[in-house]
Amino acid sequence: MKKLFSKISSFFSDKVRMSRHDKAEKKGATNEFDQVVQGNSLTKDAWRRLRKNKAAVVGMCVVIIYALISLCAGILPIYSYEEIIIDHQYLPPSLTRTAGELMMKRQLSELYATAWRQGRLAITSEENAMLSQWIENDKTSRVWDWCYEEGQKQLAAGTFSFNASEQKKVDKLEESIKSDIQVTVGSIRWTDPETGKTRKLEKLDLMTLVEIYSKVLGGMDTAKVNASLESGVTSQMKTEVKAKNAEMELTSEELDNLVSLEIGSIGQEGFAAKQIALAINNIEAMVQSSMKKQIKAEIKEGTNKEFPYKATEKMFDCLDVQVEASLKNQRRYILGTDNLGRDLLSRIIYGGRISILIGIVGTLTSLFIGIVMGSIAGYFGGRVDYYIMRFVDVLYGLPYMLLVIICMAIFGTNILNLFFALAMVSWLTIARMVRGQIMSLKNQEYIEAARSMGAGGARIIFKHLVPNSLSVIIVYSTLRVPEFIMQESFLSFLGLGVQAPLSSWGSLIGDSTQGMTNYPWRLIYPALVMTVFLFSMNFFGDGLRDAFDPQSKNML
Amino acid sequence: MSDDNKKPVLQIRDLQVHFPIKASGGGRKKGAVIRAVDGVSFDVMPGETLGIVGESGCGKSTTARAIAQLNKPTGGKVLFQGIDLCQASKSELLKARQNIQMIFQDPYASLDPRMTVRSIIAEPLIIYNKRNLLPQKMTSIEIETRVEELMERVGLNKAFKNRYPHEFSGGQRQRIGIARALALNPEVILADEPVSALDVSIQAQILNLLRELQKELGLTFLFIAHDLAVIQYISDKVCVMYLGKIVEKSESEELYHNPVHPYTRALLSAAPIPDPEVEQKRQRIILTGDVPSPDKKHVGCYFYDRCPVRMEKCGNNIPPMFNVGPHHQCACWLQEGKAEIATEEN
Fold this sequence. Notes:
The structure holds two protein chains of two kinds. In chain A, helix 11 runs antiparallel to helix 12 (382-397), helix 13 runs antiparallel to helix 14 (415-441) and helix 14 runs antiparallel to helix 16 (457-494). In chain A, the strands form two sheets. In chain A, strands 4-3-6-5 form a four-stranded antiparallel β-sheet, covered by helices on one side. Chain A is of the alpha+beta class. In chain A, 68% of the residues lie in helices and 6% in strands. By secondary structure, chain B is of the alpha/beta class. Helices cover 30% and strands 23% of the residues of chain B. Chain B contains ten helices and 13 strands. In chain B, strand 1 and strand 2 form a beta hairpin. In chain B, helix 3 crosses helix 4 (140-153). Chain B is globular, with a radius of gyration of 21 Å.
């Protein structure tokens, strides 16, 4: 028995040893002491040197943090970047105070300032002179702040009181701060009363939509609803046609003719599609407003609802609506809001997403084109090289920004075109650089060795030449990313880049230039965020360059 | 070693490699060429080592590279197993290259610094495997074992196969280069100054390794060096080149004891002798003048300008090869009358 046991155990241990041996074989070679011998590649070496460079490591960490934040933007607890709340225009950044408190402060300081102008605020003549001085020097925000503090003091001391209309204003604001809710409607699903299946509104046909719409409108006649939709679409198209032919002064007859022509050209299906879109739009709007009414009524009745409120509500018997409601004046805007009451923080995060994306995608596309063109020119030389490089020279001769601007103007301003335009004109430098690298490498003996072994052109280029010039390419491309971001910012600044409601760092900065003195946070924060990113990207790139340069081996 | 009944494995006939000279504008000067190799003919017998020796710039390396078709020859023939490599189609050339591999001069530059030893040695196998030119398809495991086998064969620890070239010494790297050249089981190895970049002690190791390999695998070497001692040690036959032309070829022993051509004599007299007494008595033949520029066409002996024993005839007539002994030929008009003109069979 014992013998058997030891046999079995030895069998298993053998097996284990064998499998371990196999693994070692696969993973790496082992020497006579059964230690795995690992090679030390140049890339590994560079990585080790990079880690010793503090500035580069910090830069790399910052870049990674940025990348993580913009990747996770969707799940971060931030407000929507495109939600417009008109009441929240130009709220200054504040960590502690809610939007409501800020609005109240603004209202109060406005009232106090008016009171000061009317002479109802008891102040000394010196203070009066000081305020006038401030106004002369364009420092109105200081005047408001001072008035607010003085007014609060006097109100508390009882030396000043609001008149009736002012008091009414304050009360009204207070009331709305307490009760104003923001309702956002998510997806709306429709339940078929016959089959009990639920479907999204977008997938329904016109007939069902008309029925739903009539139900939403409170049991209106379907024919009437249909007619109203038709006229709605027609008027929509009328405005479109009008906008298209803005420079021609059309008589109403001509306009009608044009519209009917247009309707004929899109055909019945096109018209139906427009009707469907309009119907869905209207239904959504109706649902939102009635939802808002419903919740407000509930609050008035005294139902205690917890906010933010998230639920799927049943409406008009057949619709399941995802509703999100929150007390909008309870929001805190850490970085303030912009001219349409959108949260600057989330706009910066989502803008960073686009800016970084442009940096990366632009670099990758230009790298791809540049490496292929450059290596072909460099390796094959002769006539191929001549023509490719002359083509590059010609493109170099054209003003770069102008080319991009023309591109954007011709193909329209959307993000894909922006990528395309930037990549098209930015591969030139990379192509030249790669060509130079490959020309210097292709006479190396190991390339000749590869040729003598029968390796073809593609193998030599992509297995030997490109990997060996990769260090230069990597360094260049990390330094290239900030350049792309800058260019995109410039284009956005000119209004040719990203279009609202999307944002990018450049467009945020561009938009903020209006009212720069009164609302400086709109300029400062995006600029700061962008600067930090560009800085760290540059440090990172510099670190990479040092790391890949074997001569710096001794210095570090 | 060589046998008269054997057929030569490699026949070089009137090989010419001319490089066009670039004019200052970047275009080509019409007709101006550097005659790096200007009509070289020799045979390489299977299993033997043919040494090519000569001073810098005499076209030794260019000859080897022209044979491997790394520089396209501008004239002449390179016959390998009856196929003229200069005219061969791509696929024929690939097949032939399998049997003609090179060992390069600089072990620091001839290995791709981004590849591991394993992938360097396996590269020819992978390329030929992909093109289905190997006797039979190899799996990746077979390639792996072949790589290990090669590493052991050239005296490298197979544990180092994951290392990169920069982690090795010069001698070890040259061993990697040799392993790579052996990977496809070639018949001929063109060794282009394989030891001149190494220390003397390591030179001996590499030379012994090459000798052993030759014995075991029956390899044929075309061995290029500028070091006379190295050539004497390794070669069965020696060709002496001057200005892109072979001036003397002979069996190694014979050449070193009985040099005929004035250039060979001068060359041999320049080599130091490792014996102080003999060395002191050594009489050097000192050549005057410089090597003429290889860009002009010669009408007479290539060595005419510097020859200490030149005659009038030498200036206008290119000397043919004279048979001065068995397997010993020399291109010098001094031999006229004493010896017959050698005939070349094709």
